């Protein structure tokens, strides 16, 4: 069954980086949108690839993606273009941190995780910055931050794109997935790969019922 996603007509510059200043014009020019969606993109009903990710602030601390998410009856995974980037730090991740307790109690979400093509040290620093004012949920961080330093995980899912002009490497498209024991139940990907039109917590909450 083909995956479900929100589609908008035409490639648009990401709203989070609309070219109103020289800096954001540079960002927009550096993103290569070769196609909306690659033919090998992960679909509803697919199982996550069992690619090794890093976590807990050290490259030595690793977790296999499928094994990790199989332990949760229901989980939400978001992918972001980069740690500390404006849309990710000011809107995308905070939307889930603010909703974490409600998603857990009212929607039955066991875990919320964020993956980015960054190293474990960067993700650890970003996690500390983002979680500083967020209460834990059942004694655990409101969100797990996972590092995909070589983009192997997002490439295996067909969710990578060329951001070398701005971020220096291939990065993750902005996406959100609902997972049940490691199986994809729903996936939404931003049409321009970086915007914030269909991947915030408010967009996924109705799909968790």
UniProtKB/TrEMBL annotation:
Signal peptide: none annotated. It is an enzyme of class 1 (oxidoreductase). GO terms for molecular function: thioredoxin peroxidase activity. Pfam families: Redoxin. Its EC number is 1.11.1.24. CDD domains: PRX5_like. Residues 42-209 form the Thioredoxin domain. The keyword Oxidoreductase applies. GO terms for biological process: cell redox homeostasis; cellular response to oxidative stress; hydrogen peroxide catabolic process. PROSITE patterns: THIOREDOXIN_2 (PS51352). Keywords: Antioxidant, Oxidoreductase, Peroxidase, Redox-active center. Coiled coil: none annotated. The active site is at residue 88. One of its GO terms (cellular component) is mitochondrion. InterPro entries: PRX5-like, Redoxin, Thioredoxin-like_sf, Thioredoxin_domain. Belongs to the peroxiredoxin family. Prx5 subfamily. Thiol-specific peroxidase that catalyzes the reduction of hydrogen peroxide and organic hydroperoxides to water and alcohols, respectively. Plays a role in cell protection against oxidative stress by detoxifying peroxides. This is Peroxiredoxin-5, mitochondrial. The gene is PRDX5_2.
């Amino acid at each position: 069954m083909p995956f479900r996603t929100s589609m908008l007509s035409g490639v648009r510059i990401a709203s989070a980086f609309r070219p109103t200043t020289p800096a954001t014009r540079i960002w927009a020019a550096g993103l290569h949108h070769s196609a909306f969606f690659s033919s090998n993109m992960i679909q509803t009903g697919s199982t996550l690839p069992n690619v090794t990710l890093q976590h807990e602030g050290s490259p030595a601390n690793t977790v296999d993606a499928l094994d990790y998410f199989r332990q949760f009856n229901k989980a939400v995974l978001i992918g972001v273009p980069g740690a500390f980037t404006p849309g990710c730090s000011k809107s995308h991740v905070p939307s889930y941190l603010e909703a974490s307790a409600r998603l857990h109690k009212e929607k039955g979400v066991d875990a919320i995780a964020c993956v980015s093509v960054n190293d474990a040290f960067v993700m650890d620093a970003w996690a500390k910055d983002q979680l500083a004012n967020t209460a834990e949920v059942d004694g655990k961080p409101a969100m797990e931050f996972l590092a995909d330093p070589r983009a192997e995980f997002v490439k295996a899912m067909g969710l990578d794109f060329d951001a070398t002009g701005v971020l220096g490497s291939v990065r993750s498209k902005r996406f959100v997935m609902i997972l049940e024991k490691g199986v994809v139940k729903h996936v939404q990907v931003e049409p321009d790969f970086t915007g914030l039109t269909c991947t915030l917590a408010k967009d996924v909450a109705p799909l968790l019922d």
